[in-house]
Amino acid sequence: MADVKRVCCIGAGYVGGPTCAIIASKCPDITVTVVDLSQARINEWNSDKLPIFEPGLDDLVKQCRGKNLFFSTEIEKGIKEADLIFISVNTPTKNYGIGKGRAADLKYIESAARKIAEVAVSSKIVVEKSTVPVKAAESIAHILQANHRRGVHYQVLSNPEFLAEGTAVKDLMYPDRVLIGGELSEEGNRAIMALSNIYQHWVPKDNIITMNTWSSELSKLTANAFLAQRISSINAISAVCEATGADVSEVAHAIGTDSRIGPKFLQASVGFGGSCFQKDVLNLVYLCECLNLPDVAVYWQTVIEMNEFQKRRFARRVIEALFNTVTNKRIAIFGFAFKKDTGDTRESPSIYICKYLMDEQAKLAIYDPKVDHEQMISDLTHPSISDNPTRVQELVTLTKDPYEAARSAHAIVICTEWDEFKDYDYQKIYDSMLKPAFIFDGRMILDHKQLQKIGYHVETIGKRL
Ligand code: NAD
Ligand code: UGA
C-alpha cells in the first residue's frame, strides 16, 4: 500500500477542495478525485466560479483540473478506484437529540464510512480529515470491519486539517506541521508511511508528526480550543482596558513579545466566528461531560461564553453611544464575512451584531466585498436570528457600494477586517452622513486620529478614544 496512485476525497468543501488541489498540483503522479453528494457544488468546482473564494485557489484548480484533479458526484466510482480515501465531510454541532447544541453530528462521517464499506472491492487506507471527537476513527474502523468483503482490508488514519480560511492555499503549501495518527501495528505504520509519502512531495519530513490515533484526534480539538481561548482571553482584557483607560493593542504587544506567549492570535475583536472554533470547543466540552469530567467541561465552556459576551457587549456599546436608541436609525455595516479574504459567513460575529441592532429596530445597510446577498438574507432570516423574516426585509438594505451604505447613516460599524475598508475616502463618507457621525471599529483597523480630525465620533475595541 506504500504506493498510492489514486486518491479520492469524500466532501468537496472548504477543506476537501483546496487540500486536493494542492495534492494534485504537488503530486503529478497521483490522480485525485473529489466527490460530493451535491451536484450544484460539483458543478461549481467544474466551472469558472468556484464555490469558495480563497486567494490563489482559482489558479491552482485551473492548473490541475481535467489533468490529475477531478470533481464528480460519482461517489461509488471514486471510492472503488482509490487506494486512499479522505473523509472530509462536515461535522456540524448536533441540533437534535442527545448532545443537542454541543456534540458533533457524526451522521455524515458514518454515511461516508458505510458507503466505502458497501462499494469497496479492494483494500483502502481511509483517512479521517474532518474534525471529530476522540475515538471517531475507531467507530469508522468498526463499521468498515463489520461490513468488509473477503480480501478487502482497511487501515484508518487520523489526519486533521489545520488550514485557516482566507489563507488556505498558503497554509496547505507551507503547513507548520502535518499530523498523522494511526494504529500502532505494522499495517498501521505502513499506512502512515503511505500518507506521509504523499505529503513529503512538498512538506519536509521533520514537519510530519506521527502518533496514535486518539492523540491525533484530540490534538485537533485542543489546537482549536487553545486558539479560541487566546481570542477570548484578549477580548476579556479588552473590556478591562475600556473600563480603565489601558489600550488592548499595547497590552497585546507587551505580552506577545514574551516568547512563551508569542504575538499571534492576540487581536481583540468583535468576537471570533467561523464554522469551527465554537463547534470544536463545544465538541470538547461535550466530550469532557461524557468522560465525567464536569470541571474540565466548565473550564472550556467559558471560552464560548466570553465570545458571546464580547459580541453582545460591542452591540450594546453601539446602542449606548447612539444616545440609547437606534430605532429607525440607518446604520452601515461594513463586513459580513467572519474574517477577511473569505466569503464564508458561518457563525460570523457580524450576523449577531446585526441581530442585536435589528432587535432594537435599527435600519441596516450592509456591505461586504465577497458575500452574496442571498447568503446575507438567509443568515439574517434564520430562525435562531429572527422570527420575522418580513421584518428583516424591511430593516435591511443590501448594497454593493460602501459609500451608498453609509449615505444618510448615523453610524458605520466595522465587523470584518477587510483591507479595502482602510482605503476609503472617509471625508467623502463623512460629508454624506447624518451628524454627529459615528464609526465603531470592531476590528481596530482604521486610523482613528485621522477619523477624529475629520469630525467622526470614533469608538473601538479595548481602548477609550
Ligand atoms: P463543508 O460543509 O464546506 O463541506 C463538506 C462537504 O461534504 C459538503 O459539500 C457536503 O455536501 C459533503 N458531504 C457530506 N456528506 C457527504 C457524503 N456522505 N458523501 C459525499 N459528500 C458528503 O465543510 P468544511 O468546511 O470543508 O469542513 C469539513 C471538515 O473539516 C469539518 O469536520 C471541519 O470541522 C473540518 N475543518 C474545516 C476547516 C475550515 O476552514 N472550514 C479547517 C479545518 C478543518
Ligand atoms: C481556524 C484555525 O485558525 C485553523 O487552524 C483551523 O484549521 C480552522 O479554524 C478549523 O478547524 O476550521 P478559521 O476559523 O478559518 O481557522 O480562521 P481564523 O483565522 O482562526 O479566525 C477565526 C476567527 O477568529 C475569525 O472570526 C477571526 O476574525 C477571529 N480572530 C482571529 C480574532 O478575533 N482575533 C485573532 O487574533 C485571530
UniProtKB/TrEMBL annotation:
EC number: 1.1.1.22
GO biological process: glycosaminoglycan biosynthetic process
Native source organism of the sequence: Paralvinella palmiformis
GO molecular function, one term: NAD binding
Function: Involved in the biosynthesis of glycosaminoglycans; hyaluronan, chondroitin sulfate, and heparan sulfate.
Family membership: Belongs to the UDP-glucose/GDP-mannose dehydrogenase family.
Domain UDP-glucose/GDP-mannose dehydrogenase C-terminal: residue ranges: 332-448
Chain positions recorded as NAD(+) binding sites: 11-16, 36, 41, 89-93, 130-131, 165, 276-279, 346
Gene Ontology cellular component annotations, sorted alphabetically: nucleus
Gene3D superfamilies: Cytochrome c1, transmembrane anchor, C-terminal (1.20.5.100), NAD(P)-binding Rossmann-like Domain (3.40.50.720)
Record key words, sorted: NAD, Oxidoreductase
Annotated InterPro entries: 6-PGluconate_DH-like_C_sf (IPR008927), NAD(P)-bd_dom_sf (IPR036291), UDP-Glc/GDP-Man (IPR017476), UDP-Glc/GDP-Man_DH_C (IPR014027), UDP-Glc/GDP-Man_DH_C_sf (IPR036220), UDP-Glc/GDP-Man_DH_dimer (IPR014026), UDP-Glc/GDP-Man_DH_N (IPR001732), UDPglc_DH_euk (IPR028356)
Catalytic activity reported: UDP-alpha-D-glucose + 2 NAD(+) + H2O = UDP-alpha-D-glucuronate + 2 NADH + 3 H(+)
Biological or metabolic pathway of the protein: Nucleotide-sugar biosynthesis; UDP-alpha-D-glucuronate biosynthesis; UDP-alpha-D-glucuronate from UDP-alpha-D-glucose: step 1/1
EC primary class: oxidoreductase
Protein name (Swiss-Prot/TrEMBL): UDP-glucose 6-dehydrogenase
Keyword Oxidoreductase: yes
Domain of life: Eukaryota
Residue positions of the active site: C276
Source organism phylogeny: Eukaryota, Metazoa, Spiralia, Lophotrochozoa, Annelida
SMART domains for this protein: UDPG_MGDP_dh_C (SM00984)
